[in-house]
Amino acid sequence: MDTKDIKRQLNISLWISFFTGIFFFTIFTKDKNFHNFLICFLVSSLYSFVLVFGNYYSNSYLNKKYSWIDNTKRRIILGILSTVLVNVILVIVCNYLNFIVLQKNNPDHFFSGQLGFVNWLIINIALLISAIMHAKGFMEEWKKSSRKEVVEQKLIAKSANAQFESLKNQLDPHFLFNSLNVLSALIDENPNQAQRFTASMSKIYRYVLEQKDKELVTVEEEIEFAKTYCELLKTRFEDSVSFDFMVNEAALKSYVVPLSLQLLLENCIKHNFATSSKPLHIKIFTENGFLLIENNLQQREQVKESAGIGLSNIVQRYSLLTKLNVFIEKSDDFFRVKIPMLTQKVSAMSSQPSQESMAYQRAAKRVQELKGFYGNLISYCLVIPFLIFVNLYTSPQYLWFVWPMLGWGIGLASHALKVYGVGRAWEEKQIRKILDKEQSK
Questions:
Q1: Nearest residue to 262 via CA among 339, 319, 328, 199
Q2: Bridge-partner residues for 337, per DSSP?
């Protein structure tokens, strides 16, 4: 056992012994002297130490076997059973030591008359304290789990953000390097075109700088940029390359990752040869929620291994933003890439709530139900013993406390059935069935 926990239980036992000793000394002791106070304190210590450590070890054992978070229902049921059993046994042992061994009462009257009532009353008090400690333990475990989950999610978010920034930062030097290569080739081939290319490149690079800090841009912005970039490519390749834009107007307000079209167009040029006799035809069009870039396949031999920045960069950036996939299709005649067009500008896209999100919402609702039930149970355990005490102290001949105890008890039982009953399992089964059906579509 943890030494810190044992020290904490010792402190709890001492404080309970002190306050209960003062209570019994003040209310039930006629002769107010130090000797009687010491006896009250020692008797209180007997009860508090036995009950506190008895409950502590039984709860520690259950906590090792069954988690409050992963096995909530089983942990609660076993906790209630063990609490009742452990407290009944421990109270009877303490009462026997107190009333029979120390006070020399007749053992035959231990379970009857006044001693029987004292047994019942102390058992209820012990159960009340134990119920409060159980509720406290559950809430502590849940808070600990919630804090752990929040920390994990923050770390995941920071990692994803750092990865995304790293991917975006690849684009600036990558684009500039390739553009300078094209410019270098044009300077030798056609100085006038090189001058026009430089002017166009400055406009395009301005767009690159403007979009570098964005996670998503509209399809309309990306198409306009792609058209400008295609004009730049036409400057170099003239009639060796043709571009055909067929984008549905309804798709222009959707979102894609920045510079995705530029990278894919660059891939088409990089991996295919283009001549006047065998021109490269590139089509940009929309279909079923995807933006497609397709070219006729005229694959050139790779002199050196490709760095693979373009396509892999797009795939990785989409994987950080959405569960929708980037599709790559290749045949003997064409090469096609399909990138999803997103309908909401958020950090994590999804067409419907994820199963994890729905599970979290159900878990949060479950916690509220459990908190309500435990609040009801603790109130019952606090108020009913108080009413019993008032009843027996003021009018013991008429036991009126039975009626609120029964009425409230029935309500508490119905509350327990609602929280842990058969209907709960049926509801969770139906939710699981619906989720499985949606995933299979």
A1: 339
A2: 293, 328
Q: How far apart are CA 441 and CA 427, in angstroms?
A: 22
Residue 332 is predicted with a pLDDT of 86
Q: Number of helices (H) and strands (E) in the chain: give both, helices first.
A: 11, 7
User: To which H or E segment does residue 12 belong?
Assistant: helix 3-28
**pLDDT the model gives residue 162:** 47
Judgement on whether residues 212 and 149 belong to the same structural domain of the protein: no
What pLDDT score was predicted for residue 171?
A: 47
Q: Put the strands of the sheet holding 334-340 in their side by side order.
A: 241-246, 280-287, 290-296, 334-340, 327-330
Q: How far apart are CA 196 and CA 281, in angstroms?
A: 23
CA distances from 9 to 12, 50, 138 (A): 5, 11, 17
Query: With a cut of 70, which residues of the chain have pLDDT below it?
Result: 1-2, 68-69, 137-138, 142-143, 145-179, 182, 211-213, 302-310, 344-367, 371, 420-441
Q: What's the whole-model pTM score? A: 0.43
279, 256 in Cβ contact below 8 A? Answer: no
At 272, the amino acid letter reads N
User: Which phi and psi (to 5°) does residue 253 adopt?
Assistant: -90, -5
C-beta atoms surrounding 52 within 10 Å: 21
Domain extent at residue 433: 352-441
Q: Kindly state whether residue 372 falls inside one of the protein's structural domains.
A: yes
Residue 438: what pLDDT?
A: 53
- What are φ and ψ of residue 342, in 5° steps? -95, 145
Identify the CATH number of the domain in which residue 322 sits: 3.30.565.10
Q: Is residue 159 part of a domain?
A: no
Whole-number pLDDT of residue 348:
42
Q: What are phi and psi of 357, to 5 degrees?
A: -65, -45
Indicate the number of domains in the chain.
3
Write the secondary structure of 48-103 as one string of H (helix), E (strand) and C (coil). HHHHHHHHHHHHHHHHHHCCCCCCHHHHHHHHHHHHHHHHHHHHHHHHHHHHHHHC
Listed residue (308, 194, 290, 277) closest to 251, CA to CA: 290
pLDDT of the residue at 242: 93
Residues 220 and 262 in one domain: yes
3-state secondary structure of 34: helix
| Per-residue confidence (pLDDT) for residue 217, from 0 to 100 | 87
Task: Assess whether 77 and 11 both reside in one domain.
Answer: yes
Position 33 in a domain: yes
Q: Is residue 167 assigned to a domain?
A: no
Domain co-membership, 207 together with 335 = yes
Measured between alpha carbons, how far is 408 from 419 in angstroms, rounded to an integer? 16
- Of 317, 340, 363, the last residue of a domain is 340
